[in-house]
Amino acid sequence: MVKAIRVHELGGPQVLKWEDVEIGEPKEGEIRVKNKAIGINFIDVYFRKGVYKAPSLPFTPGMEAVGVVTAVGDGLTGRKVGDLVAYAGQPMGSYAEEQILPANKVVPVPSSIDPVIVASVMMKGMTAQFLLRRCFKVEPGHTILVHAAAGGVGSLLCQWGNALGATVIGTVSSKEKAAQAKEDGCHHIIISTQEDFVTRVNEITSGNGVEVVYDSVGKDTFESDPGLALVLNCLGLGQGSLVCLKLRGYMVSFGQSSGSPDPVPLSALAAKSLFLTRPTLMQYVVTRDELLETAGELFANIASGVLKVRVNHTYPLSDAAKAHEDLEGRKTSGSVVLIP
C-alpha cells in the first residue's frame, strides 16, 4: 500500500482526500515509479471540479511527476531500475507516492537539472514549447499577448517568446506579478485589474494588434459578446482578446481558469479572418518522437538558461487541498510542487 490523494466526489479543494491505495506491479510495457516531486497544473483543478470529466470515480488526480524507476514489466528494454524519469499528460494519477506508468510515456531526466525543477515545469514547459513553436510559430518581429503572464505557463511563454525575438505584452493582476513579468522578458505589462487590456494593447501596437494571443484565463479575457466587442473596439472601447488580434491573427485558448468562455459565432472571426484554436498538449505529443523532441527542447532551454523556472511554492503531497485552494485563489505565482 502507498499513500495517494483520492477524489470520491467532485467539488472544491476539500474533496481531495489522503488515503492508502494499492497500485500493484507493472505489466508488460509498464514501469513502477517512486515519485520524488509532483507538479500541480490548473488542469488538475478542472478534473477535480468536473469541468473535465475523469474516467471514473474515485480517481487520483495529477498529470506530471518525476521519480525513480523501482520495477519494470516483463520484456521491457530501454528502462531499468534506478532510472530517473519524468512524464506529463496521460495517464492521470501523479498525486501519489508511487504509480504505474506506460514506459513509452516517460522521458529520461538529465542529471544536470534538479528533479523538483523538472516536476514543476514538465507539463507547463512542454505546453509552452508546442504553443510557441508549433501551434503558432513565433518568429522575430512578432508581437504576442500573454494573459496570466506571471503564472506557470505564462512565465515560460514570456521568457521563451522574448528569446525568440518577439515583443511580449503580458497581463497580470497585481504590481508584484508585474515585477515578475518584467524579469521574465515582458516588454509591456498590463495590470488588468487597473486598466483595460484591450485599450492598452491598441495603444502599444498603434492600433495594429498582435499576431497571437495566448489565453489561459478564459471567460474573463476571451470574449463575452464578439459582435459587440468589434463595435466597441471601433469606438476605442475594448472588450476581449479577439479584439487585440491583427488581421489573420491567431487566438489560442488553452485554459479557462476564470470559467469557460461564451460560445463564439463563426461570423465574429470573419471581420479579420481570424484563426481560433483550443489545443491540448496530449494532441501534440502523440508519437514517441514528438514527445522526445518536445521534452528535449524544453530541457535544452532550461540547461542553457533561456528558461528560469521559479518553484515559488512547495507543499507536502498530503496538503494538496491547501495547494489547490491557494492556486485557485491566485495566491501563487510561478510553479507549485507537491513533495511526497
UniProtKB/TrEMBL annotation:
UniProt key word Cell membrane: no
Domain of life: Eukaryota
Gene Ontology cellular component annotations, sorted alphabetically: cytosol
Domain Enoyl reductase (ER) stretches: 11-338
Gene Ontology molecular functions: mRNA 3'-UTR AU-rich region binding; NADPH binding; quinone reductase (NADPH) activity
SUPFAM superfamilies assigned to the protein according to its UniProt record, in alphabetical order: GroES-like, NAD(P)-binding Rossmann-fold domains
Pfam families noted in UniProt: ADH_N, ADH_zinc_N_2
Keywords of the record: NADP, Oxidoreductase
Entries under InterPro entries matching the protein: ADH-like_N (IPR013154), ER (IPR020843), GroES-like_sf (IPR011032), NAD(P)-bd_dom_sf (IPR036291), QOR-like (IPR047618)
Protein name: Probable quinone oxidoreductase
Species of the source: Lupinus angustifolius (Narrow-leaved blue lupine)
